[in-house]
Specification:
With 71 residues, this protein is an all-alpha fold. It has helices at residues 3-22, 29-48, 53-69.
Amino acid sequence: MTTTLKRITATVLATTLVVALSGCSHWSKRDRNTAIGAGAGAIGGSVLTNGSGLGTVGGAAVGGIIGHQVH
């Protein structure tokens, strides 16, 4: 995966996260933290594993768990 494609993928994921969270103003703080953690984890997992689907999903799962535990 080229560097340009990685940057485009990260930008698309970040934009999707921002758009998705903009409609979640009624969520509790824990719900928002879970979603933010999952989104950040997905981006991190994708970047660290060179766009691997398993890395992206794994990062989202770990990020969501961490985000859920943050108060």
